[in-house]
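About this split. The held-out portion is used to measure sequence recovery: a designer receives only the structure tokens and must propose an amino acid at every position. Recovery is the fraction of positions where the proposal matches the reference. Here is one held-out target exactly as it appears in the evaluation file.
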């Protein structure tokens, strides 16, 4: 016998079924979920049947079993068995309670019936189409569910969490005055004349507590295509953002749906660009904080004047250091070599120990700001597989100056002088343990704010950059994200 399980939201007609459905007796337990009421229908082919049950308030899902077989979980209100042989069957269904909640699973509801070969051929009736549901306008205490009109339908019937079935001629319903929690709405098309009611369509909507913080992530900004008179500020897509607002030097914010903005015909000076992510109206999400980045455009140097202090070709110009090369950085116990090479007019690559590819950084003056983007690295030899390695800041909280923290999302800033580099806000290099054990790094790769690294006499990436001794838990595992 072949068993094919098709999860659906409907049941077929009850005609031509020889059945005896008995609801299991519920024990007197105040916190126990109600037992689902079960009905069974047979297909016109006589070799399949559908079991449908009622929605139970506060249930998160359901379990069913056919003829004592293993339990199968589902979030639907029905299940169809196809390619079945004639004979006797028993189906059990129970409602499942939330984990750790105030409710217990329900008692099993049970149904015994006989599948008759060839039965049901005269009971087939064409149905209205099933509505396609869409949730919207979700707030702290309300939401709406809408659907497109179903051809031939005169009205619709809907219910909330298995409650009263209400008839409406509209194609949208609104639910208000709600508490935080999950709500399941069912809708079917009806009044179709010769057409039978549609199958039930269902959708689950979550209403969140107003005390929860649903602020969008702050955009991570970077500078691209910088010239003497122009530049571009770009950022990654922020999840759940509908659009973005940006402003230049504190001016009125401007709306954009893009993830970059170009600034042209700019004179020499400092430019502060701020960007924030904005969610769609009618959602629980809030605007992100403003992200900020500073771009410095300098006066064009005169190549004919060797005394011009802003001449980039003047080797005596202290404002134009050659920051490429190898730097020795240490946490006081372990030493690693970091190699920097130039990749564009303001873009540099930082090769760090144990990663496959370099991190990208943007130069402003004699400062590099590392772009907070992952570098996929194969650590299969150490048992982790391919992981996303990040470089972020590593410094104390103002309220706890004795303890150092890693700051995911905060980009490290490296400031150079003629002899080396200072890690202004520290540098942490690591990844999230795929086994869920927090952040991991390599011993010595968590470098405190203010760490100074000496520039070495080396013109190529050292071998130490390419070797990987394995990852360990960092000495400080606090994951404090700003």
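Reference sequence for scoring:
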């Amino acid at each position: 016998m072949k068993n094919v399980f098709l999860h659906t939201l409907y049941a077929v007609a009850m005609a031509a079924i020889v059945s005896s459905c008995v609801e299991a007796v519920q024990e007197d337990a105040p916190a126990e979920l109600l037992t689902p009421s079960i009905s069974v229908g047979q297909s016109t082919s006589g070799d399949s049947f559908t079991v449908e049950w009622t929605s139970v308030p506060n249930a998160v899902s359901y379990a069913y079993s056919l003829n004592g077989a293993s339990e199968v979980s589902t979030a639907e209100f029905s299940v169809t068995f196809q390619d079945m042989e004639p004979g006797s069957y028993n189906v059990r269904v129970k409602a499942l309670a939330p984990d750790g909640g105030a409710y217990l699973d329900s008692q099993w509801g049970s149904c015994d019936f006989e599948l008759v070969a060839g039965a049901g051929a005269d009971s087939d009736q064409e149905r209205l189409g099933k509505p396609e549901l869409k949730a919207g306008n979700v707030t702290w205490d309300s939401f709406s569910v809408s659907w497109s009109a179903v051809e031939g339908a005169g009205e619709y019937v809907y219910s909330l969490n298995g409650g009263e079935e209400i008839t409406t001629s509209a194609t949208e319903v609104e639910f208000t005055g709600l508490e935080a929690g999950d709500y399941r709405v069912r809708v079917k098309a009806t009044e179709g004349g010769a057409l039978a009611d549609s199958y039930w369509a269902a959708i689950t909507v979550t209403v969140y507590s107003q005390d929860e913080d649903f602020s969008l992530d702050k955009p991570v900004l970077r500078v691209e295509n910088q010239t003497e008179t122009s530049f571009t500020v770009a950022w990654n897509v922020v999840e759940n953002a509908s659009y973005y607002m940006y402003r230049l030097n504190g001016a009125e914010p401007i709306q954009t749906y893009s993830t970059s903005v170009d600034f042209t015909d700019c004179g020499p000076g400092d430019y502060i660009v701020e960007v924030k992510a904005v969610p769609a109206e009618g959602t629980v999400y809030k605007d992100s904080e403003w992200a900020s980045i500073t771009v410095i455009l300098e006066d064009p140097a005169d190549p004919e004047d060797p005394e011009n202090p802003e001449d980039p070709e003047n080797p005596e110009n202290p404002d134009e250091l050659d920051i490429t090369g190898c730097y020795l950085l240490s946490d006081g116990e372990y030493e690693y070599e970091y190699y920097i090479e130039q990749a564009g007019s303001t873009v540099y690559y930082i090769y760090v120990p144990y990663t496959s590819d370099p991190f990208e950084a943007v130069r402003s003056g004699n400062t590099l700001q590392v772009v907070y983007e992952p570098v996929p690295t194969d650590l299969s030899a150490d048992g982790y597989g391919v992981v996303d390695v990040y470089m972020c800041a590593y410094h104390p909280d103002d309220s706890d100056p004795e303890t150092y923290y890693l700051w995911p999302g905060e980009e490290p800033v490296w400031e150079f002088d003629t002899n080396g580099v200072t890690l202004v806000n520290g540098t942490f290099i690591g990844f999230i343990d795929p086994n869920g054990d927090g952040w991991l790094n390599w011993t010595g790769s968590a470098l405190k704010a203010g760490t100074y690294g000496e520039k070495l006499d080396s013109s190529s990436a050292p071998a130490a950059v390419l070797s990987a001794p394995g990852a360990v838990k960092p000495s400080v595992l606090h994951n404090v994200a700003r």
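Annotator remark: The CA atoms of residues 69 and 79 lie 15 Å apart.
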